[in-house]
Amino acid sequence: KTQRYIGFGICIIVSLLFFAISLMYLPFVVIRPSKFIVPYCLGSALVFASFGFMQGFVTYVKHLASKDRLPFTMVFLGSTAVTLYSALYIQRYIVTVLCII
């Protein structure tokens, strides 16, 4: 149980760090949106991982894939993936800004 708390704490602290970094780049989203998107998405992924540590990853994935949660899980993961793809691979400003919104 102690390992779960330690993993949860580390993931939350690092995710807060990534969210702080993304907020520092928020004024530059007009110039380079990827500077904001990458730390924000990494912070979101670490929040997901932190709850996986708390509940156990198999239990957490089953919870996220349950009938009530699956649409929200898919929308969140899909929007995060499309945002990263548009910022890092397509590199089109308009598409990236629309994905941020």
- The residue fraction in helices comes out at over 70%
What general outline do the C-alpha atoms trace?
flat
Mean pLDDT: 90
- Enumerate the spans where pLDDT stays under 50 for 5 or more consecutive residues: none
Total helices: the number is 5
Explain what you see.
The chain is an all-alpha fold. It has helices at residues 2-24, 34-55, 57-64, 70-90, 93-100. α1 packs antiparallel against α2 (34-55), α2 (34-55) crosses α3 (57-64) and α4 (70-90) packs antiparallel against α5. The protein is flat and about 45 Å long. The mean pLDDT is 90.
Helices and strands in order:
Blueprint: H1 2-24, H2 34-55, H3 57-64, H4 70-90, H5 93-100
List keywords for this structure.
101 residues, mainly alpha
Summarize the structure.
This protein is mostly helical. It has five helices and no strands. Helix 2 (34-55) runs antiparallel to helix 4 (70-90).
